[in-house]
Amino acid sequence: MEGAAVAEGLWGLADHHEKVGDIGKTIKCLEAICQTQISFLPLVEVKTRLRVSALLLRYSHNVNHAKSHLERSLLLLKSIPSSFDLKFRTFSLLSHCYHLLASFPPQRNLLLKALDLASSVPQDLSAFLWSCNFNSQLANTFIIQADFPSSLSALHSGFLSASHISFPELQMFFTASMLHVHIMQWTDDYSVEKAVQRCDDIWQSISSDKTERCPGLFFYNEMLHVFYRLRLCDYKNAQHHVDRLDQAMNALSHKMLEAQQLQDELTSLDHTLSRYDLPSRERAALSDRRSQLQDRVNALSPSSSTTAANSLEPAFFGNMDRAWTERLLLSQSPIDGEWLPKSAIYALVHLMVVISGRPKGLFKECSKRIESGMHIIQDELIKLGITDEVREADLRHTAIWMSGIYLMLQMQFLENKVALELTRSEYVEAQEALVEMKNLFTRFPTILQASECVIEMLRGQYSHSVGCYSEAAFHSIEASKLTESKSLQATCQAFAAVSYLTIGDADSSSKALDLIGPLYGMTNSLSGVREEASILFAYGLLLMKQQDLQEARNRLAKGLQIAHTHMSNLQLVSQYLTLLGNLALSLHDTVQAREILRSSLTLAKKLFDIPTQLWVLSSFTALYQQLGEKGSEMENEEHRKKKWDEMQSRLAEARGSIHHIELVDKARLEMHKVEDAQEQAEVTYGMQASLDIPESVGIEGPSPAQYSSRLVGLDTGKRWGKRRV
Prior knowledge:
Keywords: Cell cycle, Cell division, Chromosome partition, Coiled coil, Mitosis, Nucleus. This protein is mainly α. The protein has helices at residues 2-19, 23-35, 42-59, 63-78, 84-100, 104-120, 125-144, 148-164, 168-185, 189-205, 208-211, 215-231, 235-273, 280-300, 305-308, 342-357, 363-383, 400-423, 427-443, 451-465, 469-481, 486-503, 506-521, 529-545, 549-567, 570-586, 590-606, 610-627, 630-655, 660-664, 677-690.
């Protein structure tokens, strides 16, 4: 009796401190139960330790302390024959601790034990829900180790559990997760297409009132469809999903703003109602008003938020407590998982708008979205304590996952900014973004390991843009050495070949031939049309140099069709047209040459692409000379001279910058060494590979799936082309 009274008193005191927000005193009250000499029933100690662990995970970074409480709870529960719900909660929280500490083998073993227990108890709703929970976490551990078949098996088991209890939202959760794994490994087009169709079928089977209660699942499913379509270069259908994501983000933002305003008003009313001297009539009116506000808040909140507050499950991302307005849950308790934090998803939506709009020349909107996305990321990094002075070695181990998400997203925005600024000939702005990428990489070399290849590619593209062709070839070759992706290697080598051909001497042309020959032979074995387009561009340019004009026309026409039909990349189309216009001029087909060059110039002007405009204007001069149109030639030359002067002014400004030499210098990046780099590499392995956003200059490769740190993708429209023939 004495023990029960003490426990009840301390729990009541802990409730009071938690209600007023004093979490430190709350934990002290609860830990007093575990440390006292008074004997308690095992269940009392277990429940106390579970509550302490949940508080530590939610409000602090003391994961090891929480893990110790949970391991002790698990030992105590071994002597208790039932109490399955407590056992399941303990397994789930302890698994989460192992995940935060990157202890993946112990986590996997623990989850297998939890699944064994779940299969041995009476198969009711609770057992199936916990099976879903454990299978989702187990799939994540397999993905981190790039074990895709085992991950798919675990996800399929979770899908079967969800099917047993006729839970379509959970079925959709597992089906979407399986699609994510298929996209990451992409063994064949048919398997991925089949997974997409399963997602569509299940999503359509869920009633609209339920889908509105699953905003996180909606964003996850739609984003996976974007990744899938971009991987296939199906930009038209990808745009449809990007538009849906953008509309949903705006609608949800307004909804959350309304909910926050209502919550603020509720808080104010509660403060007023706490006054003892409030007249009874006024109290009654305010109470009615409060009831109405609470109903409106409940109507706006997702279904799982009602149980999440009392759940022992921590927020999956980070160790801080976040209101439901700041979370996009994939399912109800006991899953309560997120694919990504809401702010990261919003940033990702902005990024998808940039990726879909940049090839079309929608630079104003893209710049606006880059600014919005970077603002979101900067705010989140500051919350995580990542300022300009922080380096990888300074990060808490438990903060690596969360910080990695935002750092990699930041790199994606920066690389798109570099590509955008290079396209419209804003070289100083491109410099600044590229230097920022370089500085981030040197500060976080393990987390951003995959970005080294991207940075080298962009250094090559910058060098080519400012006329440093030898340096451009060097950086492109170096980039090809930094990836195991055959497709990306091919793209880098094609870039290098274009730079060699632009130099134009015999030795450089020989190096270009050595690169292009093997590349063209492997075109059919590559995974995407982007690589094929880059190879055809370089190969067509080489054939023109060799005066094999008819074969060059065939290859360039094929590449133009890819660039126009599949990639919707206006700059690449413009540069292909310029090559074809020059080719027609070489064949003395002046009518076709004039028509093609006009189209190319129109596109180059829309993109503010001054180098391509100069290239086309020079071709027009040659055309007018062939036709003997002296007046048109002089007028064209005057216009070309103005553009030339503008170009030289921009180049002089770029070359005069303090960053120019370090960017074009034929040297790899230097980075700060991290003592536990191997351990951090294991933690960030999946994130690095998975943050290969479609249409960004990224690396394809395995990555973790599901809801932990997952972006997956493909590769980008790049800075193509030569500046002169």
